[in-house]
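Exercise: predict the fold of this chain.
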Amino acid sequence: MFALGSAYAQSQYFLAAQADTIFIHPQGQVFLQGYGIYEPYFKEAIDKYGVEWNVFRVGKYKSAVEPFLLNGMSPEARDNYTQLLGELWTDYQKQVTVARKLPGDAIKDYVANVGTGLTALGGDGAKLALDAHLVDKIAEPDQMQAAVAKVVGRAEHSFRQVGFRDYLDAPDGASQLLRGQVAVVVAEGDISVGDQPPGSIGGDSTSELIREARFDDSVKAVVLRVDSPGGSSFASDLILRELELTKEAGKPVVISMGGVAASGGYWISMSGDEIYASPDTITGSIGIFGMLPTFQGTLAKLGVHTDGVGTTPFSDAFDVTRPMTPELRQAFQLSTDYGYHQFITKVDYTVNPKHVISGRYFNAKFENPPIARNTPLK
């Protein structure tokens, strides 16, 4: 197997490392940076402009709302992310060094000594990668093509090859038969209510795809491919119900998790007869939150004030020019608590740990759950 590239970013190199021979252009480099999570925090700006950001959540480890409450990571979020990223980076290094037959600390040393190495080589990134045994040969594109052509043969001005799109579109009797027996429903992106276009998940549109598979007699099983950080709990529950009905109809449901199946992405995964995840899948993040900003303080700075009367404490609900009433805040928090209870109850009674093949839990530390899983699922 050959890997041909002008340069390799971290994700590209992970794939290239599986090849027997890795080529790199003389002007190329292998740039490995590790993993990091950095995001803006808005509390100081929110306070400066007088915005009141009303947040309703359950659990201090549900950190998605922190940018609106703090000027930096909470200790809980920092601990969670540090553990998560550390494990991902450890796995990356292990898989690359095993594939390349390198010492276990080879990637760590390469990253730590990039500055020193480039200085010694006059900035030659390709030679740095070659000396570290991350690549096998430095070559121009025509030289790469000639080397591969010696093995697979020449066609026109390059080596014999087929593009991946042509490969995927090529007719194949076995794969057509598989498609006729197993329906693959892709749930990728944020989860929202209603009908959503490809690249996002709709409570109605994704449910409809699952429903079509359920009523199609040629479909014998359903695979739900999940790659989602979550979203609407209502939409997630609609999808979960369709999967449950599919199982009740006698059709197995298998969940295949991608890079992320967290929060609502985990919600829609719970009913699978089996749940498959890669060792680096980020899953879990079990919790609920909601947010509603109000701008009465901002408007007051401009000399604008809102006044009026209503028939109930909720008459001005969702009026962003007025503060939330205590009654409305209580209702929001109770609804959030209820959603969290529903989530963890469904996890407790729906997921059989024996059916979860792999995966890494994230933000799954509960205050008072019926179950508590904060370690990788086996």
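Check your answer against the key: The chain has a mean pLDDT of 84.
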